[in-house]
């Protein structure tokens, strides 16, 4: 018997979510964002789910090469661009498109007088103040890139800081449009939140990530209400049951104390599996088909659950940590984080099963 925890990955949920993104994108091309190992779902699994995308976008060059080796012939967009000259050579060799967000990256491209031309995605800083050029430098960099024989074409892009909020692109979108006015080339602006919340940002290509994995980009709208299906289920089983009397404590620090007789279950899942240690007592969990709550501190290999609503449960009972029954966004919110972080943190020790 192996430890009962496993992650189930559903390429069919990914296909469904990609089709939904496309239906909202008003004819725009769809880049499926697969950085961070496909948001923790596995790069090959992401490829299985997003084969119908117009392109894949990521930040890791090793992973881009791996996608080529796995047979992906379509466009690949490197969202942080080249980190050094070797990356530019890799981009030329493997036909990777490069974001250009900073003057040093323009220099890297201009230091290459010949060779296979590379597609550039010139990034405008629309207020996040993380990556990208402000208006004047943006237009200057555009002119320099267009003059390079080794640059195949220049797409104008930006990334919104507040697309998950109402009115969140009200300043950023006009700022982009003003900076890009009169410049030739396709436009790419929208992440999941912009695509769903501000459809006027769809432009020529969109770059959804989180929605394709079935989680919500919004704090106040569930994935299900957006028509999304979770692509990852984390499940395990009870490996022990304890009967508590009032005053008995549970787990490290005795953080939970029973105020009545109760049964608690011990789940083979802990923070070393990727379950957030900060998830407090009350974090939702499903046991034996019933929704209940965690109690006490999450440990490295175990967490405890309240079996009061599940009298049928015993050692071996099925537990869903997140998935169809327990949205990952609810677990994340209880733990003070977002679904993105939980997906990406799925630990390598958790065996992954890919569903049909
Ligand atoms: C990660 C990323 C995205 C995808 O964002 P989601 O919120 O996951 O949809 C889009 N564009 C850029 C530049 C990114 O870095």
**Radius of gyration over C-alpha positions, nearest whole angstrom:** 23 Å
- Beta-strand portion reads 15-25%
Tally of DSSP β-strands: 18
Percent range of helical residues: 25-40%
Strand order of the largest sheet: 8-7-6-5-4-3-2-9
Description:
The chain is an alpha/beta fold. The protein is built from eleven helices and 18 strands. It has helices at residues 11-24, 35-39, 43-49, 61-69, 85-94, 103-110, 135-146, 172-180, 192-197, 328-334, 339-344, and strands spanning 6-9, 29-33, 55-58, 76-78, 96-100, 118-124, 151-158, 187-188, 205-206, 232-244, 249-250, 256-257, 262-267, 284-287, 290-295, 303-306, 318-322, 352-354. The chain has an eight-stranded parallel beta sheet. It has a six-stranded antiparallel barrel with strand order 10-13-16-15-14-17. It has a two-stranded antiparallel ribbon with strand order 11-12. Helix 1 packs across helix 3 (43-49). The chain is elongated, with a radius of gyration of 23 Å. The model has no long low-confidence stretch (mean pLDDT 97). Bound molecules: pyridoxal-5'-phosphate.
